[in-house]
Amino acid sequence: DVYKRQPLPLLLPPLQVPHPVPLSDSSGGPPTNKHIFDLPFKIVSWNSRALLASIHTDRKIANKKYREFQRLLKKYPILGIQETHGVHDDEASLSRDAGSHLHYLSTIPGRLAGGVLLSISKAFINQFVYGIVHQVVVPGRVQKLTLQLHDAQLILMNCHIDPHLNVPQARLLLQQVLHAVPHQHPDIAFVFGDFNATAINEVRFRLDAGRIMDTQSTLTNLVEEIMDPFVELVGTQYTHRSIAAEGHITLSRIDRIFTNLQSLELMDRFPQVINEHDILEPGYCSDHVPVALLLIPPLHLPPRAPHIPIWMANHRVFDFHLNICLLYTSDAADEE
């Protein structure tokens, strides 16, 4: 009951979603007509650094990574994982071992590298989603999931921008991301992943030397230029720790989340972008930490019983301001 499409050519027109197909499982029932933002909306993005390549990595580290993945599945309805490695057959294993979610995996044929994975909670699907289309934009690097909602589409783009791409390749890949995502309503889009580039006004921090480093690069400028139509939801912490051969440790914020929602639409939802772990946590299983987005439902109506905090009511100027408000109210009533 879930539609999948084969990988398409590199240059893609905007995706046209087919007629919505009802999705349900043994829990039954069609989706409700609620909007996805009527409840807290949560997404997490994580560069796992070989989540599925446990055969080729230390068993202890591999187990840590999979336990972290299972923990994120329990906490978030939408997961985007980059650098999964593995092969396409791992999708069936994920469906068996983590049956609470539907899993969409794109790998690079013949290579134990790259790989992107989108996992969507079945509970979220049963509540909001009428149909799903999975599209591989660039195998193992960029994938797109279109969820047909009651009154719009939710578009999720999971990206891993390889830092070894040359300038034309990086530009072409970023343009695929741009062309595949609508820039305005009614469709809602989130683009997230490992961009391997900081924001143009941010710095990297050289931990062992205690100094900042310039982040200006061609890739940084490309991401800034091409992602300009979108709003970036910015966290306040570094998300990546790199260790050079000489032992130098550099911190940066290269795991990023963008949306086509405008700033005014986001204000009432109090967006929060947080790290699930501290980037310097000893023994963590990846050089990236999971980055999560939380949107809170806006208050459509004033509270039924407005409450004045005690500290405010007891403040010496409270009565003064209250009397002024009452005075202006009574004057306005007299004029009418």
Number of helices: 8
Task: Please state the CA-atom Rg, rounded to the nearest Å.
Answer: 23 Å
Please outline the major beta sheet: 7 strands, mixed
Q: Label the structural class.
A: alpha+beta
Low-confidence stretches: 1-22, 24-28
Biggest sheet: strand arrangement: 1-6-7-8-9-15-12
User: What general outline do the C-alpha atoms trace?
Assistant: globular
Tally of extended strands?
17
Distance between the termini: 64 Å
Order of SSEs? EEHEHEEHEEEHEEEHEEEEHEEHH
Overall pLDDT: 82
Strand-residue proportion: 25-35%
- Helical proportion, percent range: 10-25%
Structure, described:
With 336 residues, this protein is an alpha+beta fold. It is 24% helix and 26% strand. The strands form three sheets. It has a seven-stranded mixed sheet with strand order 1-6-7-8-9-15-12. Strand 8, helix 4 and strand 9 form a beta-alpha-beta unit. Helix 4 packs parallel to helix 5. It is globular and about 80 Å long. The N and C termini lie far apart (64 Å). The N terminus is likely disordered.
In a few lines, what is going on in this structure?
By secondary structure, the chain is of the alpha+beta class. It contains eight helices and 17 strands. The N terminus is likely disordered.
Summary keywords:
single chain, seven-stranded mixed beta sheet, six-stranded mixed beta sheet, 8 helices, globular, disordered N terminus
